[in-house]
């Protein structure tokens, strides 16, 4: 089984890119982020024609998350992250697919900091931590996949001082990600590639793609029941290099049956 996460940065604007990647990579389950489309604007027909069922939660102009499943319909279990009923941003969706509970998440960026956006980022991650602990305690096979907007370690960003004040690399942000690993979740990409410098995002500005000036923001975390099934993991970097591409590349893992 192949599971992937992809911050598509506009699902309709980059629909051709998405469909081409689905056909070439053949993932069984896909978590999408930054749909930048309302529920009614989600390209359901095109994705069904590509062989995928889908659940999604859209939002106009920004945010938005979805889960695609090849050859079946995901069973929606949750359309929002619990803990704050007043939070209307579309950043979390959860569904059951082929015996796995899978979440697609798009964590807040948090910039500029200090300020309310950074406060919201930390509060959102605290809610994620609480919900993740409940999911982990069930003992079920669970995957938390998406754009966490956290660079976990110094090796997960190109050598630079330009991000020193950025919310993505702050100690509080890294501590929030570490708190999930401390619960027992496995960072699948880092498990398979323990020593490599890994990037999943390259900003459009300052020729960062051409200079390979990247960051690792997109992560797939596995609950304990799935860690023994982890077979492989990688980044489809070439997708980022196409004309008009998202600024993120798809991240994927494979699990043994």
Automatic annotation (TrEMBL):
Span of domain Endonuclease/exonuclease/phosphatase: 4-248
A family per Pfam: Exo_endo_phos
Active site residues of this protein: 106, 147 (proton donor/acceptor), 248 (proton acceptor)
Cofactor(s) annotated in UniProt: Mg(2+); Mn(2+)
Alphabetized UniProt keyword annotations: Hydrolase, Magnesium, Manganese, Metal-binding
UniProt-annotated site: Important for catalytic activity, residues: 218
Site location (Transition state stabilizer): 149
Family: Belongs to the DNA repair enzymes AP/ExoA family.
Name of the protein described by the UniProt record: Exodeoxyribonuclease III
Natural source organism: Sinorhizobium saheli
């Amino acid at each position: 089984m192949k599971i992937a996460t992809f911050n598509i940065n506009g699902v309709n604007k980059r629909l051709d890119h998405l469909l081409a990647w689905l056909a070439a990579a053949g993932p069984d389950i896909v978590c999408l982020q930054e749909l930048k489309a309302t529920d009614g604007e989600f390209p359901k027909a095109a994705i069904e024609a590509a062989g995928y069922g889908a659940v999604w939660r859209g939002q106009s102009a920004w945010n938005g998350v979805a889960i695609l499943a090849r050859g079946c319909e995901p069973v929606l279990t949750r359309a929002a992250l619990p803990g704050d009923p007043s939070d209307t941003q579309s950043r979390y969706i959860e569904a059951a697919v082929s015996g796995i509970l899978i979440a697609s998440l798009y964590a807040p960026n948090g910039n500029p900091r200090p300020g309310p956006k950074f406060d919201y980022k930390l509060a959102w991650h605290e809610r994620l931590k609480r919900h993740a602990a409940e999911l982990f305690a069930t003992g079920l096979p669970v995957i938390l996949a998406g754009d966490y907007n956290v660079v976990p370690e110094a090796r997960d960003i190109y050598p630079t001082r330009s991000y020193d004040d950025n919310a993505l690399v702050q100690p509080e942000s890294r501590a929030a990600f570490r708190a999930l690993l401390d619960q027992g979740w496995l960072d699948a990409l880092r498990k398979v590639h323990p020593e490599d410098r890994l990037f999943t995002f390259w900003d459009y500005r300052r020729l960062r793609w051409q200079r390979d000036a990247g960051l690792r923001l997109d992560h797939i975390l596995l609950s304990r029941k799935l860690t023994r099934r982890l077979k492989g993991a990688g980044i489809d970097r070439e997708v980022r290099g196409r004309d008009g591409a998202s600024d993120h590349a798809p991240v994927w893992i494979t699990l043994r049956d």
